[in-house]
Amino acid sequence: MPLIVSKAMLATVLLLTAGTAIADYSGHPRAGELLATLKQQYGFGPDDLQTVRDALASAQTVPSLIEAEQKAPERTETWTTYSAKRVDALRIRRGGQFIVDNRGLLDRAEAEYGVPGSVIAGVLGLETNFGRFTGNARVLDALATQGFDHPTRTPFFYAELTQYFVFCREFGLAPTELKGSYAGAMGWAQFMPSNYRRLAVDFDGDGRRDLWTAADAIGSIAHYFTAYKPETRWHRGEPLIVPARRLRPLADSLQRNGKAVQYSVEQLRAAGVEPAVRLPPQMMVGLIELQLDPGGADDKEYWIGLPNFYSVMSYNPRVYYAMTVSRLAAGMSAEAARLSGDPP
């Protein structure tokens, strides 16, 4: 007996084969809670709520986005592999040229917020290669899939889905149209919806906060580092990291790769880690241990993280991420100096 496949069945098969499927999240058990929150806390009226219902009904579930979040390279690669893909000559050349081309905006951002232009360029280079790739996943699908179906992080993504609908109403944008990362981050600066609403700035004075433009991305990143959290506020005039050397085998109890400063310089020296430059003995820092590809006499590399290193980690809470921004900032600054004929 021949198998008869309807057009509707064929469409479903094609969607599933492509790793997506229409989910109609408007019928999800938590959809009513989301609508109630938007109504009660953010004053959504009937038309606004209908827009949300329609968006949820059209949302697709994309399991590959959850997999991408769970297998982020910051979690799975060695430092050698991770950095080789990102601290590359082409990205550094582009970053140096970006600094030269946007000198006025970057200098103004540093004057207002204290964040060096090279650090801002490092973030933009790592996040989106200076706007060349801002993501091709629908933000609605990314946040709905992970806000309703993520096995471990639904509270975070559910909150961001809520903020996304508020953001779209505030900015006059259709929630079904925007594209971003697998996690729902948007624009050159890759802000999540809550951070976009709270921390994005109109740095070019055109009346809009548009993170798909270089100017607003520059100002917003600098603002982020000074306003995201008081405890991670940028320290004007301080570096991010200094190299260190291990004096002897380190105790297992010595904390590595934390998300905040943990020890004084004096305590780390007593534990067997010496900074390569002189630092105040009582200065609070963190110990960074980088896993290199195995096989050498010592497959680990050590650095001292200063408060600004952990400010960068507030952007992405992975040591490899902040280390890459630090390395890119140094390389891009040197390249910009070369292009401008300035002393490095």
UniProtKB/TrEMBL annotation:
One of its GO terms (molecular function) is peptidoglycan lytic transglycosylase activity. Keywords: Signal. Residues 1-23 form the signal peptide. InterPro entries: Lysozyme-like_dom_sf, MltB-like, SLT_2. Residues 49-329 form the Transglycosylase SLT domain. GO terms for biological process: peptidoglycan catabolic process. This is Membrane-bound lytic murein transglycosylase B. It comes from Hydrocarboniphaga daqingensis. The lineage of its organism: Bacteria, Pseudomonadati, Pseudomonadota, Gammaproteobacteria, Nevskiales.
